[in-house]
Amino acid sequence: MHIQVITLFPEMFSALAHSIPGRAQKKGLLTLSYLNPRDFTTDKQKTVDDKPYGGGPGMVMKFEPLYQAIQTAQETVLSKHCDTPPPQVSYLSPQGRLFNHLAAEQLAQRQHLILIAGRYEGVDQRLLDQVVDEEWSLGDFVLSGGELAAMCLIDAVTRLIEGVLGDAESALNDSFSNTLLDYPHYTRPASVAGHKVPEILLSGDHEAITRWRLKQALGRTWQRRPELLKKRVLTPQEQVLLAEFIDENSE
Ligand SMILES: C[S@@+](CC[C@H](N)C(=O)[O-])C[C@H]1O[C@@H](n2cnc3c(N)ncnc32)[C@H](O)[C@@H]1O
Q: Residue 13 in 3-state DSSP?
């Protein structure tokens, strides 16, 4: 996958050189490149923002530098893959569609992404109307800029690109991957200040451990995110496990 990020702060993305996104890049499964709207300005001051029409606080990112950066990003892809449609342009925005696991799975299927990280009060609406295909929000809060949001999106998508995670790190049991939250994890020592690891995990009985983990995943989801369970049709075994969990955990 090739992701091009349009940002005034490309240096912020150095975090992605580490851990799983870093490894994905070393394996050649992910390439990241950055376009700075400042490089697409025509004035001496390299102006990328201006006062809002109608007055009011803050500044707005100008249409033209962003538009030129997007054009360049698209041309870069088309010059290498002339048979593909132009890549979708996504804007990180608190007003966008909520980014979640399903969205990450969908984006992980794409070959190219162009992400725009906004700043100030946001970008000129005409850019969103004319060249942006979709808007993604990280949640109902406002960040100072789209860079952190873009990094979160890139990290979440990268984990789902085939071949990026090794078997041991498989995302299959991660929260949301099967509409359930993950089960609890423990590691050595078996006892910490008198708090013991659940006996079953020391039993070596893999079938019983799988059953226990599924029960915990169902129970946690029921306790913490009951709305997720409504999206899932429970198998008869899952219904039994959840009933057991509820029984064991009710006062
Ligand atoms: C200070 S915010 C602008 C917020 C805008 N005035 C509003 O209220 O909708 C600057 C930039 O941060 C990014 N941003 C802020 N919150 C975000 C969120 N929850 N999800 C994704 N991007 C966000 C967007 O790119 C936005 O253009």
A: helix
Residues in CB range of 201: below 8 A, 6 or more apart: 186, 209, 212
Q: Which residue has the tokens 């873009």?
A: 150
User: CB count, 10 Å around CB of 212?
Assistant: 19
Q: Which atom of ligand 1 is nearest to the CA of 137?
A: 20
* Cut 0.90: pTM above it: yes
Residue 168 has pLDDT above 90, yes or no: no
- pLDDT at 119 > cutoff 80: yes
Three-state DSSP class for residue 231: coil
Q: Report the residue count for the chain.
A: 251
Contact assessment for residue 7 and residue 13, using Cβ atoms and an 8 Å cutoff: yes
Token couple for 201: 């995990």
Q: What is the rounded distance in angstroms from the CA atom of residue 180 to the CA atom of residue 220?
A: 8
Please state the rounded mean pLDDT for residues 65-76.
97
Q: For 120, how many CA atoms within 13 A lie in the half-sphere containing its CB?
A: 17
pLDDT score for 222: 98
- Residue of the CA atom closest to atom 26 of ligand 1: 118
Q: Is 138 in the pocket of ligand 1 (CB under 6 A)?
A: yes
Q: How many CB atoms lie within 10 A of CB 225?
A: 15
d(CA 17, CA 168): 21
